[in-house]
Specification:
heterodimer; A: alpha+beta; five-stranded antiparallel sheet; 20 strands; 36% strand; B: two-stranded antiparallel sheet; binds adenosine-5'-triphosphate; binds magnesium ion
Chain lengths: 357, 553
C-alpha cells in the first residue's frame, strides 16, 4: 500500500472565462487530516468536487488509492462528501438519510440501521433518528450529514466548509468532535474552509490556495512560522512588511539593509543574492517592545501613532520611516504611552522572514 | 399573512376603502356564487329526473365514462411529455433549445382547438395523411374518437404540465443529486430516490391541472371526438341541439362533481408531501449531462412532438392560403375573402371583449388581491380568497350555462348583451389574475402603506399611486393572460354570444365541425396572428415589464 491515498496531478479547470484551477498538484497521506484553506473563490470547492468526481478536470489526473479515477463516477470512487449546506434529503427521516448510502449499495435494512445507530451514537444523535431534517437545529443537521457521509466508510471523506453554517460557539466544539471522530475511524479527511483558525486547530496538514493555485503545503506550524509566500504570510494571521536590500548571506542567515539599519534574519530563502530587493516580514505578536534598547541587535526605532487596549494585549500602531507597523504587546510592561512618543522594537532573527519581491 | 393580522389596520375606517371592499365582496358573490346557485336549483326539479338520466340512459352514462376515460388516458401522457420537456430544458444542454421552447409557447398562446382542427386536416376522414395511407397501403385510418382525441389532448395540454414542472425543476437544489451520487447511488437511482420524490408535489399539481383542462375542454372533443361524447359536449348538445337548458346545466354540474373529485384526490395524496427544502448557499453547479441512453430517447420524443406542433401550424397556415386542402394547393386568398365580413365582425367583437375583459380582470384582480393582503378582516378575507379562486375549478361549460339561467330574468338581466360575456371572462380568469398579484403583493411591506397614510395620502391615492405601481408586473401579466384566454376561449362564451355579439373563436369551431377547413384554417391563422401581434406590440411598448411565459424561453 502506497502511503499516499490521494494524488492530484497538475489539474486545470476552467468555467467559461474563469480559470478556477491552474495546475494544482497535491499528495495526501493515508489517514491524515488535510485542510484546504484559501479566500473565497480561490477554487477550493472546485478542487474538492474534482476529487469527488462531480466535475471532470479539463486536464490533469486524479489518483485514489493507486487507481486513476478520471472518468470514474463519484459512486465508484470510494469517497463521500459533506456539502456546505448539508443537503439532507428533506423527504427522508434522519435514519433514512443516514442509511441511504448503504441501501443503494444493497445492504439490507436491518444491518444498515444497526450501523447507522453505531455512528449516530458516536456523534450523539441517537435521539434524532426519527425526525425529519427540518425539525433539527443547524448543529444537529451538520451531525446527521456527517453521519451520512461516514456510514459508508469512505476511503476519503470530503468536507466542504463543514462548519460555516454553525454559530461561533458550537463551531469550536464541533471542530474538536470532528477531529476526534476522524482519529477514531482513521478516515483520510479533506476539509475545505476559509477560516484560518479552524484550519490551524484541526489540520495535520494545511494546503493554502490562492486564485486557483496552491501556495504552500505544510503543518500548521510551518504555515504559521515559515510561510513561503507573501500571500500565505498575509492570509494566515497578519504580517508587517518592510522593504529592504540584501547585504550579505552568512552561515546562519542573511543580512538585510532596511532604511539605515541592518537587520538579521535566520531564515534563508533560495535564489536571493546580495543586492536583491526583498520584503521583510514579521508578525505583530513576534516583535517585542523595548524600553532600553542598548546593546541589542535587530532593533528599530518607531513613533507611536496610536495604542489600543484590547484586553489581553495592547496593539500599537507605529510609524517606521513612513511605513506603518503593528505590534501586539502581551506583557503589559510598557505603561500605555502617549501618541507621538518614540519606542524601540526588537525583532528576533528567527522570526524575521524574507520574501522575494 | 398571519403576521399581518396582528397589526392595526390604518385604513379600517376609511369610507372609500370600505366601499371598495364591499364592491369586491358584492361583485364576486353576484357573479360567482349567485349564478352557480341559481343554475343549480332548477336541475333539482321533477324529482331529480335530470340526474337520474346518468343512471338510466346510455348516452349519459357513456358521457361520464368517456370523460373519465379521456382524463385517465390524456393526463398521464400529457404530464409525462411535459415532464420530459421540463426536465430536459431545465437541466440539460439541449441543442436547438429555441425550437422546443417556441413550439411550447405556440401551444400556449394559440387556441386549444387549433390542434384538433389541424389533426382533422391531417388524420380525419379526408385528412391528407389518411388519404395518403389509403392510397399507398389501402389502410383505412380512423382516428376519430377516443384515440384521436387522446393524441390531440396530449399535444394540446402537455405545455400546461410543462409550465408547472419547469419551475419546480429549476428550483430543485442540485446538491441533493450530488449527495446521492457521492453516497453511491448510480444516476438513475439518484434520479428516482431524490429528484422524483422531491418533485412529487409538483407532479401531482401538474396532473391535477392537466386533468382539469382535459375534463372541461370542449373544442377538441367536439371536433375530434366523433361519437365519443364527453360531458362538456353533451351539455352543449342539450342546450344548443335540444334547447334543454336545465338538462345542460345538470350535465355541467356532474362535470363539476368530477372536477371536485380530482381536487379531493390531489389533497388526499399530497397530504404532507410538501417538504421544506433547506437550501443554503451552494453557489455553482455544473450541468450534469445524462447518459446517452436517457438523453437520446428523450430528445427523440421531444423532437417528434415539436415537429408535430410545427406540422399542426403549418397545416393551418397552408390550409388557409391554398385552394382545397389535400387536393389543390394553388395559393389563394379565397378563404379569407369568403368569410371576410364575418371575420371582421367577429374579430372586432372578440377584440373588444378580450381587451375589456383583460382590463377589468386585471383591475378586479388587483382590488381583490389588495384587499386580501392588506385589509385585515380575517373572515371576509378568507371568503374573498376562496370565492375568488373558485372559478379555476368550475368548468367553463358550467359557468356559461349557469349564466344564461341566472341572468335571463330579474333581479339582473344581462342575457344577450356583451357585458355578460365580459363579466363571465373576468370571473373565469380572475383566479389567474389573483395568482399573478399574490406573488408580487406579498413582497410589499405593509409599512409602505402605513407610511403613505402617515404622510397624509388617502386610501385611494395610496392604493393607486403607491401599491398599484409596485404591483404593475402583476397587473400586466394578469392583463396579458386574460387577453389571450379571452381571445381563445369557447366553452362558456358559446352559450352567451348572440348573433350580434358573435365571437371569433366559437365561429372557427363551428366552421371546423362542419368541415369548412379552409375557412376555419384562415380564421385560426387570423386569430393566432392577432394574439401574436398584440403580444409583440405590448412587449415593444412596455419592454421588460411584460412577462409572457418568459421564464423558460
Ligand atoms: N460551475 C461554475 N460555473 C462558472 N464558474 C464557476 C463554477 N464553479 C466555480 N466557478 C468559479 O470558479 C472560481 C472558484 O470557485 P469555487 O467555488 O471553487 O471557490 P471556493 O474557493 O470554493 O469559494 P467559496 O469560499 O466562496 O466557497 C470562482 O471564481 C467561481 O466564480
Ligand atoms: Mg466553496
Amino acid at each position: 500500500m502506497a502511503s499516499e491515498i490521494l494524488v492530484v496531478k497538475d489539474v486545470w479547470k476552467r468555467f467559461g472565462d474563469v480559470v478556477a484551477l491552474k495546475g494544482v498538484s497535491l499528495k495526501v497521506k493515508r489517514g491524515s487530516y488535510v485542510v484546504i484553506l484559501g479566500p473565497s473563490g480561490c477554487g477550493k470547492t472546485t478542487l474538492l468536487r474534482i476529487i469527488a468526481g462531480l466535475y471532470e478536470p479539463d486536464t490533469g489526473e486524479v489518483w485514489i488509492d493507486g487507481v486513476k479515477v478520471n472518468g470514474v463516477p463519484p459512486h465508484r470512487r470510494g469517497i463521500s462528501m459533506m456539502f456546505q449546506n448539508y443537503a439532507l434529503f428533506p423527504h427522508m427521516k434522519v435514519i433514512d438519510n443516514i442509511i441511504y448510502g448503504l441501501r443503494v449499495r444493497g445492504v439490507d435494512r436491518e444491518k444498515a440501521e444497526a450501523k447507522a445507530r453505531e455512528i449516530a451514537k458516536m456523534l450523539g444523535i441517537e435521539e434524532l433518528l426519527n425526525r425529519y431534517p427540518h425539525e433539527l437545529s443547524g448543529g444537529q443537521q451538520q451531525r446527521v450529514a456527517l453521519a451520512r457521509a461516514l456510514v459508508i466508510e469512505p476511503k476519503i471523506l470530503l468536507l466542504d466548509e463543514p462548519l460555516s453554517n454553525l454559530d461561533a460557539k458550537i463551531r469550536a466544539k464541533v471542530r474538536v468532535d470532528l477531529r476526534r471522530i476522524q482519529k477514531e475511524l482513521g478516515i483520510t479527511t479533506i476539509h475545505v474552509t476559509h477560516d484560518q483558525e479552524e484550519a490551524m486547530s484541526v489540520a495535520d496538514e494545511i494546503v493554502v490556495m490562492n486564485a486557483g493555485r496552491i501556495e504552500q503545503v505544510g503543518t500548521p506550524e510551518e504555515i504559521y512560522f515559515r510561510p513561503s509566500t507573501i500571500f500565505v504570510a498575509d492570509f494566515i494571521g497578519s504580517m508587517n512588511f518592510l522593504e529592504g536590500k540584501v547585504l550579505s548571506l552568512t552561515d546562519d542567515g542573511i543580512l538585510v539593509k532596511v532604511a539605515k539599519l541592518t537587520l538579521k534574519s535566520f531564515n534563508r530563502v533560495k535564489g536571493v543574492h546580495p543586492g536583491d530587493k526583498v520584503l521583510l516580514g514579521f508578525r505583530p505578536e513576534h516583535a517585542q517592545l523595548l524600553l532600553d534598547p542598548s546593546g541589542k541587535e535587530n532593533v528599530l526605532e518607531a513613533r507611536i501613532i496610536d495604542a489600543r487596549f484590547m484586553g489581553a494585549r495592547v496593539t500599537y500602531i507605529l510609524d517606521f520611516e513612513g511605513s506603518t507597523i503593528i505590534v501586539d504587546d502581551y506583557t503589559g510592561k510598557p505603561a500605555k504611552m502617549p501618541a507621538g512618543s518614540k519606542i524601540h522594537i526588537y525583532i528576533p532573527p528567527e522570526r524575521l522572514l524574507i520574501f522575494k519581491s | 399573512m398571519i403576521s399581518r393580522l396582528s397589526r392595526d389596520d390604518p385604513l379600517a375606517k376609511d369610507p372609500t376603502t370600505i366601499a371598495l371592499y364591499m364592491f369586491a365582496l358584492f361583485f364576486i358573490s353576484l357573479f360567482v356564487l349567485y349564478p352557480l346557485a341559481k343554475g343549480f336549483v332548477p336541475t333539482l326539479s321533477d324529482g331529480g329526473v335530470y340526474y337520474k338520466k346518468f343512471l338510466d340512459e346510455r348516452l349519459y352514462r357513456d358521457a361520464v365514462i368517456n370523460t373519465l376515460l379521456m382524463v385517465a388516458l390524456s393526463t398521464p401522457t400529457a404530464t409525462a411529455l411535459g415532464f420530459i420537456y421540463a426536465y430536459a430544458l431545465a437541466k440539460w444542454r439541449v441543442p436547438f433549445r429555441k425550437f422546443f421552447t417556441y413550439t411550447i409557447l405556440l401551444q400556449l398562446i394559440a387556441p386549444p382547438f387549433a390542434s384538433g382542427l389541424a389533426f382533422l386536416m391531417l388524420f380525419g376522414r379526408n385528412g391528407i395523411a389518411s388519404r395518403l395511407l389509403n392510397d399507398l397501403l389501402g389502410v383505412e385510418l380512423n382516428l376519430y374518437g377516443a384515440i384521436g382525441l387522446w393524441i390531440v389532448q396530449t399535444i394540446t395540454f402537455f405545455p400546461i404540465a410543462f409550465l408547472v414542472l419547469y419551475g419546480a425543476i429549476k428550483a430543485l437544489d442540485p446538491t441533493y443529486d450530488y449527495v446521492a451520487r457521492t453516497l453511491g447511488a448510480p444516476p438513475l437511482r439518484a434520479f428516482i430516490d431524490v429528484d422524483l420524490r422531491l418533485l412529487k408535489p409538483a407532479i401531482l399539481s401538474a396532473l391535477t391541472l392537466v386533468a382539469m383542462y382535459v375534463l372541461e375542454d370542449f373544442g377538441n372533443p367536439l371536433l375530434v371526438g366523433g361519437d365519443f361524447y364527453v360531458l362538456a359536449v353533451l351539455a352543449y348538445m342539450n342546450v344548443v341541439g335540444w334547447g334543454d337548458y336545465v338538462g345542460g346545466a345538470a350535465t355541467a354540474y356532474v362535470l363539476l362533481i368530477l372536477v371536485l373529485l380530482f381536487f379531493v384526490a390531489q389533497w388526499k395524496i399530497l397530504g404532507r408531501a410538501r417538504y421544506t427544502t433547506v437550501t443554503g448557499r451552494e453557489s455553482y453547479v455544473e450541468v450534469r449531462e445524462p447518459p446517452f441512453w436517457v438523453k437520446v430517447p428523450a430528445l427523440a420524443i421531444m423532437t417528434a412532438s415539436s415537429l408535430f406542433i410545427v406540422t399542426i401550424y403549418s397545416s393551418i397556415i397552408l390550409g388557409a392560403f391554398t385552394k382545397t386542402w389535400g387536393v389543390d394547393y394553388t395559393p389563394t386568398l379565397d378563404h379569407f375573402r369568403q368569410v371576410s365580413y364575418a371575420a371582421t365582425f367577429t374579430l372586432r367583437n372578440s377584440l373588444t371583449v378580450a381587451i375589456a375583459s383583460a382590463i377589468f380582470c386585471a383591475l378586479l384582480g388587483f382590488l381583490v388581491a389588495y384587499m386580501i393582503s392588506f385589509r385585515r378582516i380575517s373572515l371576509t378575507n378568507k371568503y374573498l380568497e376562496v370565492v375568488g379562486t373558485m372559478p379555476s375549478a368550475i368548468p367553463g361549460t358550467l359557468l356559461g350555462i349557469a349564466y344564461i339561467l341566472a341572468f335571463a330574468g330579474p333581479p339582473l338581466v344581462l342575457t344577450g348583451t356583451i357585458f355578460i360575456i365580459i363579466v363571465n371572462n373576468v370571473v373565469r380568469f380572475l383566479p389567474l389574475s389573483l395568482q399573478s398579484y399574490k406573488s408580487v403583493l406579498t413582497k410589499i411591506d405593509q409599512a409602505i402603506e402605513e407610511n403613505s397614510v402617515v404622510l397624509g395620502a388617502g386610501a385611494v391615492t395610496t392604493m393607486t399611486r403607491v401599491i398599484l405601481p409596485l404591483a404593475s408586473v402583476g397587473f400586466l401579466s394578469s392583463f396579458v393572460y386574460a387577453f389571450i384566454k379571452s381571445m381563445n376561449t369557447v366553452s362558456a362564451v358559446i352559450f352567451l354570444e348572440t348573433p350580434r355579439t358573435k365571437l371569433l373563436a366559437p365561429f372557427i369551431l363551428g366552421l371546423g365541425t362542419h368541415g369548412y377547413w379552409g375557412q376555419a384554417a384562415a380564421l385560426s391563422t387570423l386569430l393566432i396572428a392577432t394574439v401574436v401581434v398584440f403580444l409583440v406590440s405590448l412587449k415593444l411598448l412596455m419592454g421588460r415589464r411584460v412577462r409572457v411565459f418568459e421564464e423558460f424561453l
